[in-house]
Amino acid sequence: MAPACDRTDAIVVRCRCVSRENGGFHCENHSTSIDQTCPQCGAKCDPSSSSLYYLLSSDSRSQKDLEKVWRCISAAAKGFTIGAGLKGGLAAFAILARLRKGTFSASARKVGTVSNREAIIIAVKETLRYGLFLGTFAGTFVTVDECIAALGGHRRTARWRTLLAGAVAGPSLLLTGPNTQHASLAIYILMRAAVLASRCGMKSKRFGRICKPLTWAHGDIFLMCLSSSQILSAYILKQDSLPSSYRSFLNKHGGKDSVILQGVKEIASNIPFTNLKGIEKYYRSQGVNIKLDPKMKVPCLIVHGNQSCAAHVISFLVQAYGRALPVYLPVYFIPALIVHRQGLLKSPYTILGKGLLGTARSSLFLSVYCTSAWMWTCLLFRIFKRCNIPMVVMGTFPPGLALRIEKKSRRIEISLYCFARAIESFFTCMADAGLLPPATKLKRADVVIFSLSTAIIMHCYAQEREVFRSKYLNVLDWVFGVPPAISETPRCKNT
């Protein structure tokens, strides 16, 4: 009588037919002795082949685990590179401009002035902070994405996994500084998320009709006009409602001294002039002698001195174009050196020509935008023979039409950026007027908005990739390397 089979002496083997039926994934184990046959096909199991299978499957699992870990590390490193590169590049240009103006340490001893050495240290810290911010964001997103996929299954969690991962990664914004508010950035990212959500809605049968007005061909220009009305009005009437960096940008390209802006603000607000002598002194330093009347109704003499409105428009346009060129040269040529570095070797004249054309076109947009702001306000002041706040708001609406100069792909980007600034300025004005609670009472609302927005953006990236433009999709793919969608997994392809 043959001895009973001891389970401890049995060898766990895998029959080829079972592995073949399951495509090599999630197969069943059969506990058999070496002499037993497969319960499904009747063939004898080969322990040597099963051992080889276990070794290969173990190596395959280890390789996949290593790929997941590498994806997390790679995303964090690439995010840090992008954050540090962008912030560091802007800081480098700012420091070079500072050195060019000759603000050396001797003059920096004045009260409230930062020396060059201190400016460089601040720039390095800001560069590292923004690198850590984007590196942590990318690394956290990929880590959460991989952990949820490993615990809950890739296909089963695909519909909501990236939504949660994007929200969890959002608080990495705090790494830019625990006390640093980023309302403009958060609102801009929210605008980007709204655009992507609207594009998804246009594809939907349920929300298609609601989102239909968003397909208006010139909606970006109308949005720019609305933004322009708020931003340029705030530039003249209430500069403290704008972020300091954006305020500096407007003061440079607005082309007017602070005493001139103060004079226009006072006449528009119908309050007595406080510094007409300062305006006259400023024009004398420019070689122009003027005498200002405290009872004036139209501020054209304050805005452009003895020049006529038409002559001022022409001269201001030429000067504004010269100020705009240095802004757009790095915008076009630095990405060309990074993104199209291989194409520069093959067809350098084509790429450089496109860069020059883009620089000239964008510089023309900015110069026309700034020039038309003064042109339209002067025109309305002359027509109605008065200057007040509604006139300023009306006169700063049409300059947004200058966006038509830009190419179509850049219009929506510029209009959304300006709209985010306009929203921040508008709510700041409302809070200062007592119509809304102060922003200080809403602690880190920027982080909440940013997290909500990144959740929507990353969900669209994983599930609705066609709503992204190819250039943005390529960058996101390079950084995050999100796994394939449900329909692209091996099992779905086989079926």
Describe the 3D structure.
With 495 residues, the protein is mainly alpha-helical. The protein folds into three domains: 7-45, no CATH class; 48-214 and 466-480, no CATH class; 216-332 and 362-443, no CATH class. It contains 18 helices and two strands. A two-stranded antiparallel ribbon has the order 1-2. The longest helix has 55 residues, at 47-101. Mean pLDDT is 80; it is low at 1-35, 103-112 and 488-495. Residues 308-428 form the Transmembrane protein 135 N-terminal domain. It comes from Nelumbo nucifera. It is found in: Endomembrane system. InterPro entries: Tmem135, TMEM135_N.
In short:
This protein has 495 residues and is mostly helical.
What order do the helices and strands come in, and which of them pair?
Blueprint: E1 11-13, H1 16-21, E2 30-32, H2 47-101, H3 116-152, H4 161-169, H5 183-203, H6 219-237, H7 244-254, H8 258-268, H9 276-285, H10 300-304, H11 309-339, H12 341-346, H13 348-384, H14 389-395, H15 408-432, H16 445-463, H17 470-480, H18 490-494
Antiparallel strand pairs: 1-2
Helix pairs in contact: 2-3, 3-4, 4-16, 5-15, 5-16, 6-14, 6-15, 11-13, 13-14
Subcellular location: Endomembrane system
InterPro entries: Tmem135, TMEM135_N
Transmembrane segments: 364-384
